């Protein structure tokens, strides 16, 4: 055994190397190993506390995002404006000459506890959603289509409005 260790370690007597091999018994060699006791619930929860905090944080952020972001966005997307009042005002503004524009009245503002609020154009739940009808009504309410309807209704007045717009001075 000494020769094997000496050759493996590069032993050289001329340099003054010394080698001593001793047989030592293993510590506690005859005793059987005992099983490790299982973790208690409190120890298990304590070890997983960081993971639980991360999961709860992600869950809270997701709930807040849905509550304050997605719900209002869906409400705004699905809200239906009342087209009668808005279209009537737009048609009157397009059809009236500039001198009459100042006399047009805006929609009435609501007052609640001394605080003035803007009128709400969002309708309530009006039954089932008709997606094809919505698309065709949006096409019919486009500015170009409304202008075509105004011209078809009264060509003379539309031409007068266009002439008036052309002769107006540009205000900067």
How is the secondary structure organized here?
Layout: H1 2-9, H2 41-47, H3 49-78, H4 83-95, H5 98-101, E1 110-112, E2 115-117, H6 131-140, H7 143-153, H8 155-167
Antiparallel strand pairs: 1-2
Please, could you describe this protein's structure?
With 172 residues, this protein is mainly alpha-helical. The chain contains 8 helices and 2 strands. Among the domains are: 37 residues; 69 residues, no CATH class. A hairpin with a 2-residue loop joins strand 1 and strand 2. Helix 7 crosses helix 8. About 16% of the residues have low confidence.
- The quaternary structure here is single chain
Q: What is the makeup of the main sheet? A: 2 strands, antiparallel
**Number of helices in the DSSP assignment:** 8
Low-pLDDT ranges? 98-125
Number of E-type strands: 2
Mean pLDDT across the residues is: 73
Hey, roughly how much beta strand do the residues contain?
under 5%
| Overall helicity | 55-70%
Order of adjacent strands in the largest pleated sheet: 1-2
Shape: elongated
Radius of gyration: 43 Å
Order of helices and strands: HHHHHEEHHH
Find the structural class using helix and strand composition: mainly alpha
The first-to-last residue Cα distance is 104 Å
């Amino acid at each position: 055994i000494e020769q094997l260790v000496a050759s493996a370690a590069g032993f050289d007597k001329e340099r003054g190397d010394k080698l001593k091999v001793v047989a030592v018994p293993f510590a506690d060699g005859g005793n059987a190993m005992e099983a490790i006791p299982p973790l208690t619930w409190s120890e298990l929860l304590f070890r997983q506390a960081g993971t639980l905090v991360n999961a709860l944080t992600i869950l809270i952020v997701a709930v807040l995002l849905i509550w304050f972001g997605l719900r209002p966005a869906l409400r705004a997307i699905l809200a239906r404006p009342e087209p009668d009042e808005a279209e009537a005002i737009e048609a009157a503004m397009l059809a009236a000459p500039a001198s009459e524009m100042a006399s047009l009245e805006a929609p009435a503002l609501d007052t609640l506890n001394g605080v003035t609020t803007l009128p709400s154009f969002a309708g309530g739940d009006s039954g089932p959603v008709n997606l094809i009808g919505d698309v065709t009504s949006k096409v019919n309410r486009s500015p170009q289509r409304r202008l075509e309807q105004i011209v078809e209704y009264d060509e003379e007045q539309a031409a007068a409005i266009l002439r008036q717009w052309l002769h107006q001075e540009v205000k900067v």
